[in-house]
Amino acid sequence: MAAYRADDDYDYLFKVVLIGDSGVGKSNLLSRFTRNEFSLESKSTIGVEFATRSIHVDDKIVKAQIWDTAGQERYRAITSAYYRGAVGALLVYDVTRHVTFENVERWLKELRDHTDSNIVIMFVGNKADLRHLRAVSTEDAKAFAERENTFFMETSALESMNVENAFTEVLSQIYRVVSRKALDIGDDPAALPKGQTINVGSKDDVSAVKKVGCCSN
């Protein structure tokens, strides 16, 4: 069950990035998940912004730091910093604009070029509420996700359809990856020192685990 938590009340902190063309609804997905808000008049994101939200995964509190940036080419200079430390990603396209689906292959390549191979990726077809305008079939999107070994979900930020599920699935899968790695080396993740970096792979990772019961300000 997902739940809102105080900012400093968490066991794990995971960085998740939103990527995809401009106008596919990344910012509304972020605001729907973190604040349960939607804006019909939302404007293109300028630069980078992020928001946080915590959920329960098993008996742990997992906090997501979710980064959102503009999809326009002129912001590509921030690429390396934007991806650094990400252990999860939502790759978003607009089901009513086929060109945004055509571009996901490029976005996926960029993501994989700048992150570790173990990053958890959710392929998201947003604006699924606009059924009469659909230009990308669910079957085509599923086939792409299966071929690229990513998760897949269609969402509607407007109707709040599958938004919670998409983010929760990503965070749950990241937690499982981290837990498996800890078991492989014989460590208890909850017993690691507060703030220790968790490396899903060889790349720099800002995602961290917080020691259970440790409080500091």
UniProtKB/TrEMBL annotation:
Keywords (A to Z) from UniProt: GTP-binding, Lipoprotein, Membrane, Nucleotide-binding, Prenylation, Protein transport, Transport
- Cell location: Endomembrane system
User: What domain of life?
Assistant: Eukaryota
One function term, GO molecular function aspect:
GTP binding
What does the record list as GO biological process? protein transport
Q: Which Pfam families match?
A: Ras
Instruction: Report the GO terms under cellular component.
Output: endomembrane system
PROSITE patterns tied to this protein: RAB, RAS, RHO
Membrane topology recorded in Swiss-Prot or TrEMBL: Lipid-anchor
Family label: Belongs to the small GTPase superfamily. Rab family.
NCBIfam families the record matches? small_GTP
Please give the name of this protein: Ras-related protein RABA1f
Q: What organism is the protein native to?
A: Arabidopsis arenosa (Sand rock-cress)
